[in-house]
């Protein structure tokens, strides 16, 4: 699969992003996987994101896209596989470990509630990973709308993370996401109960529209081990609110590539959100522009556009912008890697 960055995309970079982006970018939220990660006899659905990229998004593909989208930036990343039963979690951890050097690229395991303590330890330590990512689709025997954070992350798994000072990338459940009262209480509780674990609340707690974030960051803002990533958030109002109301040194940029490589934009509609899509792939609340009425750029660029405008409105300094786009994530993941596997020189 070739990199389909077009002339319109390049104009966005040259006119809007080139002078804004720092020399180094750290993308803390990337799905990277190859065909060895897929369960035997399974194949990706024809309209899934994976199908767009030939059924996988390898490190080679990822770096090819990064070079096209960020032509003047040195690219660093934290990656994990695809959180689906179509992909084998042990094979995904092995691939993630093989492509990570704990200097320029870091990686996490995928975990399901059924994975016991020993399996989680083995998956992380054998592959020199810096943490793990649960996912609500791995929770069994409970209606999706009723799943809680502690259903996704059993105590035994959290104890492993806390003992080792690992990082967790947490895509919170429930329809109201960040605004859900159960989530609000459990987000603070998990941070306080496991203070040595760095917990990254992905997608700013899945707050893709403004009403969903307002007044909802106060609890975790007071937890020193709580972080948020900006993956797939291009709403400048949500981003500005986050920049004003959450410690800026604990905000990290994430894209959610390869989803972010698609052409489209997330939009707020009546206190809801939808993905307007130039390409006919299914991602959550997607609406395909079948008539080609709109010219799109990538979600990747829309996210960076949103960050730029929000940073301007919130009065971020150049140092704070560089922190969000590189330094905060680099410091976080490097510290976890050094704690578990030795100095940077030894992290290979």
In short:
The chain has 13 helices and twelve strands. The protein has 348 residues and is α/β, with parallel strands linked by helices.
Which radius of gyration do the C-alpha atoms yield? 19 Å
Report the CATH superfamily. Answer: Metal-dependent hydrolases
Tally of distinct domains: 1
Q: Under the CATH scheme, which architecture would be assigned? A: Alpha-Beta Barrel
CATH class category label: Alpha Beta
Quickly give the structural class: alpha/beta
Helix content bin? 25-40%
Mean pLDDT: 96
Bin the strand percentage.
Answer: 5-15%
Description:
- The protein is of the alpha/beta class and 348 residues long.
- It has a single domain (7-336), classed as TIM Barrel.
- It contains 13 helices and 12 strands.
- The protein has helices spanning 7-17, 49-52, 59-69, 89-99, 117-125, 149-152, 155-164, 181-193, 203-206, 218-221, 236-245, 299-314, 318-341, and strands at residues 24-31, 74-80, 105-107, 109-110, 131-133, 167-170, 198-201, 226-229, 251-252, 264-268, 273-277, 286-288.
- The protein has a 6-stranded parallel sheet, sandwiched between helices. A 3-stranded parallel sheet has the order 1-2-3, sandwiched between helices. The protein has a 3-stranded mixed sheet with strand order 10-11-12, with no helix packed on it.
- Helix 11 (236-245) links the parallel strand 8 (226-229) and strand 9 (251-252).
- Helix 1 (7-17) packs parallel to helix 12 (299-314) and helix 11 packs across helix 12 (299-314).
- The longest helix has 24 residues, at 318-341.
- It is globular, with a radius of gyration of 19 Å.
């Amino acid at each position: 699969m070739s990199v389909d960055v077009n002339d319109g995309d390049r104009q966005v970079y040259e006119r809007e992003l080139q002078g804004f982006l720092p020399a180094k970018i750290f993308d803390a939220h990337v799905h990277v996987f190859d065909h060895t990660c897929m369960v035997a006899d399974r194949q990706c659905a024809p309209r899934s994101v994976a199908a767009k990229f030939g059924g996988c998004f390898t490190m080679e593909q990822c770096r090819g896209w990064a070079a096209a989208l960020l032509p003047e930036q040195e690219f660093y990343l934290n990656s994990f596989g695809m959180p689906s039963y179509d992909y084998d979690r042990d094979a995904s951890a092995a691939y993630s470990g093989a492509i990570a050097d704990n200097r320029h690229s870091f990686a996490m395991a995928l975990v399901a509630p059924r994975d016991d303590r020993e399996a989680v330890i083995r998956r992380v330590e054998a592959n020199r990973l810096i943490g793990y990512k649960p996912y609500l689709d791995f929770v069994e025997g409970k209606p999706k709308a009723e799943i809680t954070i502690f259903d996704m992350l059993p105590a035994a798994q959290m104890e492993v993370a806390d003992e080792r000072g690992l990082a967790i990338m947490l895509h919170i459940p429930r329809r109201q996401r960040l605004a859900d009262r159960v989530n609000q209480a459990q987000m603070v509780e998990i941070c306080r109960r496991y203070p040595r674990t760095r917990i990254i609340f992905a997608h700013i707690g899945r707050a893709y529209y403004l009403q969903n974030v307002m007044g909802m960051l106060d609890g975790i803002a007071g937890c020193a081990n709580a972080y948020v990533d900006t993956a797939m958030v291009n709403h400048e109002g949500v981003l500005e609110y986050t920049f004003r109301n959450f410690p800026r040194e604990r905000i990290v940029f994430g894209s959610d590539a390869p989803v972010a490589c698609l052409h489209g934009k997330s939009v707020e509609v009546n206190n809801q959100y939808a993905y307007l899509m130039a390409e006919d792939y299914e991602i959550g609340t997607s609406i395909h522009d079948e008539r080609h009425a709109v010219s799109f750029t990538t979600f990747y660029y829309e996210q960076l556009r949103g960050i730029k405008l929000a940073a301007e409105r919130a009065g971020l300094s150049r140092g704070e912008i560089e922190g969000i786009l590189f330094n905060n994530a680099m410091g976080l993941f490097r510290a976890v890697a050094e704690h578990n596997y030795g100095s940077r020189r030894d992290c290979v």
